[in-house]
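To whoever is on call:

I kicked off a structure prediction for a single chain this morning and the downstream step that reads the tokens threw a length-mismatch warning. I double-checked the sequence; it's 342 residues and nothing unusual in it as far as I can see. Pasting both halves so you can look.
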Amino acid sequence: MVLSEQVRQIGNESSLIDDSTSYSQNNASWATLKNYGNITLSNAALIVWRFNIQTSAVSYRLKIGSYYVWGKYVSGATDTGYYMGIAYMAAGTHAIIVECKGNGQIRYFTLGTAKFSDETGQTARTYSSSLSATVANRTTCIGALKNAAFVVHCFGKTTAAQTNFENVGDNLTNGVSMTVDSIQVNWTDRNQDTGNYETSSASYYGVLSVGSAHTFALTKRNVNTQVDITLYACPWILTGNSYEPVTMDFSQGSTIYVMLEPLSGDISKFIGVGKKRAVSYGNSTDYYSTSSGTGLLSFSYTFETVAPNSTPLYVNGFLATDPDLSPYGGCGCVGFIGVDMR
């Protein structure tokens, strides 16, 4: 008997903007580089976006509706390339606007919505209090959910002053730090505003347990610093650290099937049955079977001698910076899971 779930609900996905045209704007102050028009969401949705920046020494920021979800001062030729990310937005009509300050130029702007099983999130808003999210317990066709990726995107702005996101131990000008369940964490990637470019943004991709609430709180050194924030959680979004989305539970001799897919970026993804040992000699001895690569990554493994309920399944797939194109925020996802029961 084959049991399967398409956890990436592609029937509910939509491509809303796909514009390869190059747009430019040269202005000494903030101006609209390109208004891509409105999108209308009948329900809250995960927004996936990607675009190419062609000029440097320019401040850029992306606005969805009333909220900034990304910003960066592009300082040199190595900073140009593709930028990408995800953000969770509420139902409603939202204008999609790229702004710049300087001689800016972008092209290949794509944006759409994606939907996954077991997802939850909170709409971007001006931060005023802590946010909390819970991914509900559920038993999938291959076992009970165990962990989920929790993704936070922040944009910070202090009027007429720079804003910087702080990692553990930092003490920065108009700093913004974050705690998860009362413990300070480092940002997965951050675009600092050390030159007062009004483009400070940061992202956090972490792995936390399902079934209980997790609280995210920001601390601002300057109470006048404005921070827009969006929170999204889902077991099927990949992070840069390997994690177990499920605790496998099916009969011996069965074969598991998992598909890993690109989401905001077509980056290298990893899946493996096994676990890093007390003394590790690399993946070849830590895992009974692995697969990695870009594109649609299909994986299967038959549990002939290995017990599925005591052997972890690990996945990862996030790249903060691509060495070829210098983007930020490229992540993959799990597309479907299945098991051939024996």
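Update from on-call: the warning came from a stale cache, not from the record. Cleared it. Sanity check on the structure: The first strand starts at residue 2 and ends at 5.
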